[in-house]
Amino acid sequence: MKPVNPPAEVSRRGFFGTAGGLAVAAGALGPAQAAKLPAAHSGSVASVPFHGPHQSGILTPAQRHTYFAVFALDSDKRADVIALLRQWTEVSARLARGEPAYPGSYTPDGSADPLPGDSGETMGLPPENLTLTFGFGPGLFSKNGVDRYGLAGQRPAALVDLPKFNGDQLITEKTGGDLSVQACADDPQVAFHAIRQLARAAYGKASLQWTQTGFTGDSRKETPRNLMGFKDGSNNPATNQAALMRNVVWVGNEGPAWMRDGSYMVVRRVRIALEHWDRMPLDFQEQVVGRKKSSGAPLGKLHEHDAADLEAVDPDGELVVPEAAHIRLSAAANNGGTQMLRRGYSYHDGSNFHSERWPPWKQAVEFDAGLLFFCYQKDPRTSFIPTNHRLAGLDTMNQFTTHNGSGIFACPPGVQAGSYLGAALFEAAAASA
Ligand code: HEM
User: In the list 345, 346, 377, 396, which could disulfide-bond 383, CB 3.0-4.6 Å?
Assistant: First the structure.
């Protein structure tokens, strides 16, 4: 079906987001076209509110696509950063509702000048559960020893510079950054469009530093599988348990007040040597992960959500979940009880010439594909960092995986209507000046 341009005063959501919207659309298009609407678009008409106590896109069940973008701040003025965050807030709230980035951007015949309006590639598309999740990197607080915005004193202790982990092969162009935005949506065009609008809004104040797309199965139906073919996310802490989320994900009284109800995000771009993995027999793959490939059950158990028995031994006295299996080394029980909420996406970026790190040290053009790992936690110093140190040193999965991109970001709490992202940070800085 050809895209339909909504009239200027009617948002995309006004057309597609509600039953009432569909009724308007039906009236505007005539019965023959309207009847085609739901079937013509396989995506989601649903929207996720942008405003709230927490940012969306953290506990939100993972949408099918992500477009993750990291920005470098170009301006030296605090006022520019505030203006940018105000504008990003307004644009994001509209995009999440399925509206164009700027009011009145679309005209019925699509003839509007796209600048300063919306670039237009989502005209006719529903909101697709778009979420935009923002993070503040170490560079917002100080960069190369310079406190550009008078914010150095507000840097949370938990926003540490990540240490170097064993085996890291970080690509400078895929690492670090001052501000992060993760767009997630059930349509890749909606996710891309959102980042594009935010990048346009940043002209003169911030510019793209690196980006990465990702995709996943539908997490609302069952645990999606990663590119190793295993269910990924089975033993995540349950996002519907508020008390657990307060313990694991959300910053409480222990952080600076401006981070309360926010979270710390670590992102890692992890290449998986798929050609190497695909040559491994199934039982070896299962020993590496510590779970059955088909059911996702921990070794020795029947069902995906059965608890792993890390003490169990087989009749030969061998551990059922091997000593260096991924789920043993990453289990809370072996990491001081710490947990994190993983929200990973697979990525593929075509192919490249690669030299493998492990025997048979194959050199060939191979997929550049793997896991875009995201995790959220209240303090990375006690969760991601020690867990990844253990994994980086001992995990048998390391034969197949290489961390080549990285970032750490403080994701401030959600925004109340009328306010803007990170407002409490700038108020705290002003109060302490
Ligand atoms: C390419 C890299 C990785 C792959 C393919 C991968 C895959 C998996 C799979 C298949 C599981 C079992 C199912 C589940 O509970 O989700 C799992 C569990 C887990 N992974 Fe990873 N993972 C990777 C990297 C990491 C990293 C970097 C960390 C954190 C530092 C991590 C932390 C965990 C944790 C905490 C669990 C749950 C363990 C448990 O309590 O059972 N993973 N991962």
Answer: 377
Residue minimizing CA distance to atom 6 of ligand 1: 232
Amino acid (one-letter) located at 144? N
Centre of ligand 1 to C-alpha 281, Å, is 20
What's the CA-to-centroid distance between 402 and ligand 1, angstroms? 14
Question: Within a 10 A sphere around the Cβ of 232, how many other Cβ atoms?
Answer: 25
Rounded distance between C-alpha atoms, residue 252 and residue 169, angstroms: 34
Atom 16 of ligand 1, residue of closest alpha carbon: 233
Distances 42 to 1, 28, 37, 45, 186 between C-alpha atoms, Å? 12, 21, 10, 9, 9
Tally of CA atoms within 13 A in the half-sphere of 125 that contains its CB:
24
The tens digit of pLDDT for each residue in 331-370 reads: 999 999 999 999 999 999 999 998 887 788 889 999 999 9
Express each pLDDT in 16-61 by its tens digit: 333 333 322 322 223 333 223 233 334 567 999 999 999 999 999 9
Give one DSSP letter per residue of 168-226, joined into a string.
----GGGB--SEEEEEEESSHHHHHHHHHHHHHHTTTTEEEEEEEEEE---TTTSPPB-
The pTM (predicted TM-score) of the whole model is: 0.90
Residue pair 209/71 in contact (Cβ under 8 Å)? The answer is yes
CB 371 within 8 A of CB 377: no
Q: Is the CB of 5 under 6 A from ligand 1?
A: no
Ligand 1 pocket, 235 CB below 6 A?
yes
212 vs 120, higher pLDDT: 212
Percent of the chain with pLDDT over 70: 87
Non-local (6+) Cβ contacts of 353 within 8 A are 363, 364, 365, 366
Looking from the CA of residue 290, the nearest atom of ligand 1 is 12
Distance from residue 267's CA to the centre of ligand 1 (Å): 13
Is residue 282 classed as helix, strand or coil in its secondary structure?
A: helix
As a whole number of Å, the end-to-end CA separation of the chain is 57
pLDDT at 361: 84
Domains of the chain, by residue range, sit at 42-432
